[in-house]
Amino acid sequence: MLLDRDEFLVTYDATKADTKLLLRTVKASGYTAQVVTGDTTTATQVAQVLPTGFAVLDEALAKAKAENKPLVLDLFAEWCAPCRQLERVTFPAPAVKALLERTIFLRIDTDKHPELAQRLGVEGLPDIRLALPDGTIVRQLRSFHTADSLANELEKLLQQIK
């Protein structure tokens, strides 16, 4: 387990462990817990639309629609070590920086915008949402991503714009 991450995975044999006890133990330690079966990658498919009624997000959505660019929403907090690592290492990487310039890139501090974070269902940080110009979220990326990993996701996003 990497201690600077906000998310971790516990793999166990359900025939030898009590799932309910495991969930209670993880939750008692202060973490959010859920049982996931199948693909356990950190990128998850989501089917939702960005909420409206939040000035900072409404402005970005309007710009995304006007310029026909996808929206990359980085939900972070100043205290989040993986968020700071994304800001220092991943976002400035040449390939990522070039791809982000082709999007509307918006960073939102969840401590300053808790209502927005709640509406988006943010459970851990960092949380990056990739959305089409109409606000449809096509991908959610959780935890730290390397420059290569994020560049790959951004390329896929940009391919969806016609």
Characteristic terms for this protein:
six-stranded mixed β-sheet, Glutaredoxin, globular, about 160 residues, alpha+beta, about 35% helix, disordered N terminus
Could you report the average pLDDT, rounded to the nearest whole number? 85
String of helices and strands: HEEHEHHEHEEH
Overall spatial form: globular
Structural class comes to alpha+beta
Taking pLDDT < 50 over at least 5 consecutive residues as the criterion, the unreliable ranges are: 1-6, 39-47
| Residue share in helix | 25-40%
CATH fold-level topology of the largest domain: Glutaredoxin
CATH architecture of the largest domain: 3-Layer(aba) Sandwich
The N- to C-terminal Cα distance equals 41 Å
Number of helices: 6
Computed Rg: 17 Å
CATH class of the largest domain: Alpha Beta
Brief summary:
This protein is α+β, with helices and mostly antiparallel strands and 162 residues long. The chain has helices spanning 19-28, 55-67, 81-90, 94-100, 114-120, 147-159, and strands at residues 43-44, 48-49, 71-76, 104-109, 127-131, 136-142.
